[in-house]
Design brief:
mainly beta, five-stranded mixed beta sheet, six-stranded antiparallel beta sheet, homodimer, 430 residues
Chain lengths: 430, 430
């Protein structure tokens, strides 16, 4: 057998410093990658493998029944959300998505991130109602059966908590991984009714300029959002990834405001009130304001700014010796499509464009991939996203210069993983 | 309160017979739909609803903890696969997707359809190997860790069993629903390694023209497919809808041959052998041949032909009185993108184009929607898909004239649901 090190050879030119190689490597042509062992001595072109595969025990006996509702393999028990409040004590809870263990762009519904302010309510769908009232011609109450009669639309959309990556609002980098830092982010195929259709039926009073959305959880989570958003792409969602919205994601009804910060996508939706100005609810005044340097702040800045993270390599996923690695991650913007992601292996001194996985959809996670030949020496991996409006993810220095470190929300600076000579990745500020 | 019947009024013109109305109805503008009840007398434009919503018990107490891995709401316990062999007796098993209860285009992994020939093997991912051998320069064996080093791609793709809709190969229509007739069909976001990259590393002997794929289940499920497909879009998949492939869908490794009949997407993949001609395995000679009328048959016809089904309304989803309904369904083709879906409410006498949910992806399920104003009288609903190669789904009469009714596989004729005056839908041949 060839040793692994011998095989870790690139045949394609570098496109940026410290081993970033031509994207043709991602097609596999002209590259020798990584892992396979030769199947044995004496093998020949006639196809006789000298060392046939062992016949494993699971190939020699009938397998298990197919369950009515499938679950992950028992060997994947680590692929779960981390919980900040597993006993649901009377405070907020967060469940974080393990992006370092996932791939693709759809987040499995069972792993969708979730903050909640008072636990997951057990809502009887037969009893649940949605009220639309306030500055309307005719207040209306909808049962779920009523709503199921309306035309539906689907869209793949990310939701990101305003506080995602808030752990990077510190002077010193903490030893945290993707899930701990960036896990308040997920992406689903959402299906529901366009809010504009419901408002059209209720009849909008010309004085209406904002909408209050309220959840049926005990905290009565509520936020105000502009009527223009309601008439643009807002949806009242009944389905997530094909099936009914999961309990922790708002069953039986969730508001979707594509691209807006997570908490505004009100779960367990029970009430929408058309009003002439923001209501200044507890949830929009006590939190979710973007503090800037010194005495200033931004209030009611709703769209998530352009952002990206590298999910692999990342802390906990140790590199197994020098050679080829795919750098893979996620990029997104609340303002539309991702236009470009660039990747650096030398801490931002040089960047090369990554490949974007098609289809690139507006306000959805976009998977990017780049080809990297790790020399075995130290490296700092970064990704920098640009959206279709031309907004570019800022460096940490730029971000801190503008906003300082007092805040908790909307952190979107370029993030860095340092790779040491043992192949371990660490969160660093670079 | 207004009665429901009063509200079921369309303001848009018909576009085909028996109540199909303009697609603008799907935007909600100018339509009064269905369900909402006025919120009470005395309500006014100042927003004071005279009849406030009841405060439900789940809004008055803290909710449940967020689970590490979420599951559907307990109220949705009917949204499960139906099983033909729940005790895993020594014969084939089928689990069917409940498309009448789903929406969007992604199938939840727990509800992905599954046939198996000998149950679901319990494969230890540490022990599992993939062998590539036969007409190659260098046979190779891959562990999962080896494979995880290779570049990855993602794509949303449907898989449909060759025998899906086989229940329509009868002279009389059976009283079955979407799940029972068309449930061997699903769609996921698949991520893995391009098979071409692995073959490139093994080195393809010029004599190689076909590939044998073999599963690690006890039945040793195996099929031959053209090398051209391996070098085109074939993938060796590690991830399904973001997470590791589920056990009943091939954990830890599944072959994906986009657009090819389901069984060829070999689950629990353990071996790929490059050969100069089809192997004629038991699985490709005893089954999966398309019988035509009289003495002829098609062998090795792999791509799924253009097809569509209406999932709503459909049997079991009783219409609740005359008025607006969205007709919704799924269309797909193993040859590429769906170009058009047309819908009929009068048994095929007239058709109107449906709206296709973007993004329309090649070899993926495409959700279509049409607007229907049900008069309360009898109707026969049909959908007819056309793919980007120009192939049009045949009528049942055309299909039967060509293929007869001897077969089991690749049934793709236009399907019909009859709606009676009670709003019940029934499988009929029309």
């Amino acid at each position: 057998m060839r040793s692994k090190k011998e095989k870790l050879v690139s045949h394609l030119p570098d496109v940026a410093g410290n081993g970033l190689v031509d994207r043709r490597a991602l097609l596999g042509r002209g590259m020798v990658f990584a892992g396979a062992a030769a199947a044995g001595v004496g093998s020949s072109l006639t196809g006789a493998a000298a060392e046939p595969l062992a016949v494993d025990p699971w190939s020699m006996e009938p397998g298990a029944p197919i369950p009515p509702y499938g679950v992950p393999a028992k060997y994947e028990s680590k692929v779960v959300r981390t919980l900040t409040n597993p006993k649901s004590e009377p405070r907020t809870s967060q469940a974080r998505t393990p992006h370092h263990l996932l791939d693709g762009t759809i987040t499995p519904s069972g792993l969708h991130y979730e903050p909640s302010h008072s636990g997951v309510p057990d809502i009887d769908p037969e009893q649940h109602r949605l009220l639309i009232h306030g500055l309307v011609r005719q207040p209306l109450v909808f049962s779920l059966e009523d709503l199921s009669r309306y035309p539906r639309v689907s869209r793949i959309a990310f939701i990101e908590c305003a506080g995602n990556s808030g752990a990077l609002y510190t002077a010193q980098a903490q030893p945290l991984n993707v899930q701990a830092i960036h896990g308040l982010l997920s992406c689903s195929d959402w299906t529901g009714v366009k809010l504009s259709a419901l408002l059209d039926e209720a009849g909008i009073d010309p004085r209406a300029k904002w909408v209050l959305a309220e959840g049926a959880d005990a905290s009565g989570m509520s936020r105000s959002f502009p009527l223009a958003k309601a008439l643009d792409d807002a949806m009242v969602c009944l389905y997530q990834n094909g099936e009914q919205v999961r309990p922790s994601n708002g069953y039986p009804l969730r508001l979707l405001l594509p691209g807006f910060e997570g908490n505004m996508n009100v779960k367990w939706l029970r009430r929408l009130k058309l009003v002439d100005a923001p209501i200044m609810t507890k949830d929009e005044t006590s939190k979710y304001t973007i503090l800037l340097k010194e005495d200033k702040a931004w209030q009611f800045v709703f769209p998530i700014e352009v952002k990206s993270i590298i999910t692999r390599p990342s802390p906990g996923l140790t590199l197994k010796g020098p050679g080829f690695y795919e750098i893979s991650g996620l990029a997104w913007s609340g303002n539309g499509r991702i236009r470009q992601v660039e990747v650096s292996a030398d801490g931002g001194q040089s960047f090369a464009p990554a490949v974007l996985q098609e289809p690139v959809l507006p306000k959805a996670l976009t998977r990017f991939r780049a080809a990297w030949q790790w020399s075995g020496g130290p490296a700092v991996l970064q990704s920098r996203a640009t959206d279709e409006t031309g907004m570019v993810q800022p460096s940490r220095a730029q971000f801190v210069a503008e906003r300082g470190l007092r805040g908790n929300f909307h952190y979107n600076a370029i993030a860095s993983w340092r790779i040491d000579q043992a192949g371990e990745a660490t969160n660093v500020f670079a």
